[in-house]
Design goal:
Elements: H1 2-15, H2 17-34, H3 36-50, H4 54-64, H5 76-87, H6 94-101, H7 107-119
């Protein structure tokens, strides 16, 4: 699976550097909200096999880091914070979290991916 995905990523890089930066970052942002832990290691392996350029590596890193923060289950940190809030008698349901987070969270990875691509340099730690 990782070899097939790395070939797909290499094709994206050949066809369009812009598409190669946006597609994996956005797909990982969505995918990590659904299956956070398996998506990160698979993405890291795909980037290594594809020998992706720095803006693509940065977009992948953004997709697996702030990308999963939309849904409660997407991020372990979110789950831990909500548990701490509930212990302190501050009930925040998953639905309320989504309603409050939906308008503010999506712009963050979108702007970060755009900045990574436009600048052409890698983010710290993006040498996956």
């Amino acid at each position: 699976m990782t070899r097939a995905l790395s070939s797909l990523l290499q094709g994206l890089v050949r066809d369009s550097a812009t598409g190669a930066a946006w597609a994996p970052g956005l797909l990982l942002g969505v995918g990590c909200n659904l299956v956070n832990l398996p998506a990160g290691p698979v993405a890291g392996r795909v980037v290594l096999l594809a020998q992706a350029p720095d803006p693509v590596r940065s977009a992948v890193l953004i997709g697996v880091d702030p990308g999963p923060n939309l849904l409660v289950a997407g991020s372990l940190v979110t789950i831990l914070w909500l548990n701490a809030l509930r212990r302190g008698d501050h009930a925040v349901s998953a639905w309320r979290f989504l309603r409050l987070d939906a308008p503010v969270m999506p712009p963050a990875p979108l702007l970060a991916i755009a900045a990574a691509f436009l600048s052409g340099w890698s983010l710290p730690g993006s040498h996956i």
